[in-house]
Amino acid sequence: MSMQVKQAANVVELLEFFAKRQRPATLAEISEELGWPRSSTFNLIGTLAEKGYLYEPRARGGYYPSPRWSSIVRAISEAEPLPEAAIQLVAEVAADTGETTAIGAPAGISAIFIHVVESTHSIRYFAKIGHKLPIHATSTGRAILAQYSPAERQSIYRKISFEKYGETTPTSIDAVEAELRRSAERGWHQSNADYSPDLVGVALPLPIHGKRHSVVVAGPMFRCSARVPQIADTLKRAVARFAGDLDLRY
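Now predict its structure.
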């Protein structure tokens, strides 16, 4: 890992640390908790504080992220928000199926969740906004891949290592392309422990304003395997109902 990439990773790790801790921390506490050298911790904290991203609520009481983070994130999200219809679609599908429902977007060779409503079942698919999945090995990702041209997909495939996550993981270009053809014939994208053990996923393309997204319902195999056609039908009806509001362009 290069120094620049490591520094970026450290900033993310620091934010996650504060999100979990939810109170100020001293340099020593940050260094000890994250396992960073004191000098590196001092340099990073000093830089972020100088730029206004960290502050000391009380003198010598430790550092804490400033509201500048939230103002930047709000500005970014307001510049390209998900339409309210997409939020409503996910909420309705989650309520109708009882399973975790999410919208995925492309992120290189991955798909990333940009909106999630988790199931209320105690045994469920735990998914959070920002969670990344291999684009070729999940129903979420393949519903996005299907929106690319063959040439665009080949460009993505060349960057994938095709790791075998489970017995059903497609581990070659031909295997992924065959699954995309089966999905087109079937009418939905499906995964059966392709990436996550004992997890079923059912997804559809969701090209909101022509931008590649997918919507997925995922849950444990013991509860969802026999319900796949029913879940797919629920997804299809919901997508059709909101198609006009989302300006879906296939």
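The mean pLDDT is 93.
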